[in-house]
C-alpha cells in the first residue's frame, strides 16, 4: 500500500507540472470568466444609460434598417405598418433601383415593395438560412390591414383584439423530471465529462509510453507490483482531472455571483443543480473515468513511442465518441431503447444512466444495477490493465496489438 501512495503522489504532482494541463486549465478558466462577465462588460461599455432617477436601463438594440417603396396609392397606413414592424426601422425609397443598390451594398437588411394591401415583393441580397425580416413584415402588413378594415366597418380594433388574439393561461404540471429545464446543465456536465476522459486518457497513455521509451519502467515494474503502478497513475489522473473540473465549476459559480445582476438572475437554475443529480454525476463520472483511464493506460504500455499512441488508441476513442453521441442524442428522448440499453453497458452506462437520471424517470433498482455493473467492470478492467501493463512495458519495437496482448495473457 505504501508503494501505491508513493506512485499516486508522484503521478498527481506530475500533472501540475505538465504544460498541457496548466495551459488547458488557464484557457478554460479564462473562457468561463470572460463568458460569465460578458453582460457586465457589455453594459459598462455599450448598452447602459442612466435615467433621471439614476437607475440603469439597457439601451434598445438597433435591429437594422429595412427599405420600402409604397406603390399602393395610400391603401396602406405606413405609420401603422412601422409601429407593428418589430424587426427594425423602415426607411422609404422612391425608386426600385435605389432600393436594390442599398440592399446590394449591405446598407440595409432587405427591401419591400408594397404593391397592394396584401401583396408585396421582398428584395434581398442572398437567400440566407436566417430570415431577412420577411415573416415579421408580413405580420405587420396583416395587422395594418385588420386595423384599417375594422375602422371601415366602424369597429374599434382594440376592442376586438382580445377576440382575435385571446390570452391563454396555462400551467404545466410535471409528474416526472423537468427535462426541458434540466437539459442545459446535463449537456454541460456530460460534455465536461467527455472532455476530461478524452484529455486525461491521452495524457495517461502518453505518460506510460514516454516512461517506457526511457527504460525507466523496467526498473519500476521489477521493483513493485504492476497494480500499484497502473492504479496509482489512473487514480492520480482522476484526482487531477476532477480537481481541474471542479476548479472550473467553482470559478464559474464565483464569477456568476459577481455578475448576477447583469444576467438578471437568468442562470440561477444552472448553479442550483439538485444534490441527487450531482451525486449520481460524481459516482458514475468517477467510475466511467477510471474505466477508460485503465484502458488508455494499458494501451500506452503496448507502444514504444508516444507517436504510436493515436493509432493504438483509435478503436477505443471511436467507441468513446460513439458513447458520447448516444448520450447527447438520448437527451432528446430519455425513454428511447438505445439509451436504456446503453445505460447498462459499462462502456456507456456512466453517461447514459446519468442522462436518464437527470432528465428522465428511472427506478432505483436500475440505478443500483447499472452502478454495480460499472463498479465490478472497472475493477476487472483495472486488474486486466495491470497485467497488460506489466507485459507491455517489457516489450519494445513495433506496437503490440491489443488482441495479441490478450492472447499472450491467456497463454500465460
Can you lay out the helices and strands and say which pair or pack?
Layout: H1 2-15, H2 19-47, E1 48-50, E2 56-58, E3 65-70, H3 78-83, E4 89-92, H4 96-105, E5 111-116, E6 119-123, H5 134-152, H6 157-164, H7 179-213, H8 216-223, H9 226-258, H10 275-301, H11 309-330, H12 337-342, H13 349-359, H14 364-393, H15 402-411
Parallel strand pairs: 3-4, 3-5
Antiparallel strand pairs: 1-2, 5-6
Helix pairs in contact: 1-9, 2-9, 7-9, 7-10, 7-11, 7-13, 9-10, 9-14, 10-11, 10-13, 10-14, 11-13, 13-14
Subcellular location: Membrane
Protein name: ABC-2 family transporter protein
Domain ABC-2 type transporter transmembrane: 19-386
Describe this structure in words.
This protein is α/β, with parallel strands linked by helices and 412 residues long. Helices cover 65% and strands 7% of the residues. It contains 15 helices and 6 strands. It has helices at 2-15, 19-47, 78-83, 96-105, 134-152, 157-164, 179-213, 216-223, 226-258, 275-301, 309-330, 337-342, 349-359, 364-393, 402-411, and strands at residues 48-50, 56-58, 65-70, 89-92, 111-116, 119-123. α10 packs parallel to α14 and α13 runs antiparallel to α14 (364-393). The longest helix is centred in the middle third of the chain and has 35 residues, at 179-213. The protein is elongated and about 95 Å long.
Amino acid at each position: 500500500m505504501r508503494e501505491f501512495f508513493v506512485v499516486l503522489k508522484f503521478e498527481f504532482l506530475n500533472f501540475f507540472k505538465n504544460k498541457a494541463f496548466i495551459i488547458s486549465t488557464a484557457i478554460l478558466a479564462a473562457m468561463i470568466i470572460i463568458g460569465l462577465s460578458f453582460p457586465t462588460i457589455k453594459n459598462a461599455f455599450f448598452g447602459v444609460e442612466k435615467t433621471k432617477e439614476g437607475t440603469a436601463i439597457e439601451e434598445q438594440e438597433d435591429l437594422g434598417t429595412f427599405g420600402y417603396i409604397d406603390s399602393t396609392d395610400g391603401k396602406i397606413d405606413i405609420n401603422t405598418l412601422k409601429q407593428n414592424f418589430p424587426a427594425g426601422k423602415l426607411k422609404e425609397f422612391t425608386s426600385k433601383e435605389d432600393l436594390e443598390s442599398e440592399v446590394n451594398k449591405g446598407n440595409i437588411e432587405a427591401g419591400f415593395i408594397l404593391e397592394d394591401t396584401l401583396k408585396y415583393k421582398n428584395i434581398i441580397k442572398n437567400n440566407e438560412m436566417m430570415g431577412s425580416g420577411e415573416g415579421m413584415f408580413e405580420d405587420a402588413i396583416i395587422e395594418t390591414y385588420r386595423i384599417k378594415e375594422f375602422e371601415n366597418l366602424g369597429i374599434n380594433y382594440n376592442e376586438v383584439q382580445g377576440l382575435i388574439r385571446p390570452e391563454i393561461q396555462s400551467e404545466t404540471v410535471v409528474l416526472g423530471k423537468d427535462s426541458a429545464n434540466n437539459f442545459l446543465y446535463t449537456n454541460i456536465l456530460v460534455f465536461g465529462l467527455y472532455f476530461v476522459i478524452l484529455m486525461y486518457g491521452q495524457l495517461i497513455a502518453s505518460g506510460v509510453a514516454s516512461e517506457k521509451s526511457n527504460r525507466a519502467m523496467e526498473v519500476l515494474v521489477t521493483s513493485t507490483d504492476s497494480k500499484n503502478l497502473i492504479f496509482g497513475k489512473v487514480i492520480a489522473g482522476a484526482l487531477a482531472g476532477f480537481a481541474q473540473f471542479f476548479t472550473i465549476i467553482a470559478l464559474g459559480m464565483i464569477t456568476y455571483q459577481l455578475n448576477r445582476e447583469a444576467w438578471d438572475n437568468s442562470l440561477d437554475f444552472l448553479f442550483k443543480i439538485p444534490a441527487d443529480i450531482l451525486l449520481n454525476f460524481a459516482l458514475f463520472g468517477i467510475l466511467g473515468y477510471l474505466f477508460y483511464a485503465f484502458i488508455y493506460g494499458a494501451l500506452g504500455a503496448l507502444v514504444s513511442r508516444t507517436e504510436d499512441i493515436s493509432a493504438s488508441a483509435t478503436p477505443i476513442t471511436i467507441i468513446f465518441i460513439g458513447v458520447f453521441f448516444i448520450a447527447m442524442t438520448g437527451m432528446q428522448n430519455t425513454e428511447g431503447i438505445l439509451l436504456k440499453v446503453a445505460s447498462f453497458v459499462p462502456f456507456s452506462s456512466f453517461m447514459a444512466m446519468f442522462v436518464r437520471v437527470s432528465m428522465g424517470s428511472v427506478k432505483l433498482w436500475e440505478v443500483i444495477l447499472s452502478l454495480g455493473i460499472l463498479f465490478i467492470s472497472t475493477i476487472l478492467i483495472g486488474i486486466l490493465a495491470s497485467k497488460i501493463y506489466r507485459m507491455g512495458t517489457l516489450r519494445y519495437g513495433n506496437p503490440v496489438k491489443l488482441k495479441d496482448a490478450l492472447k499472450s495473457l491467456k497463454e500465460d
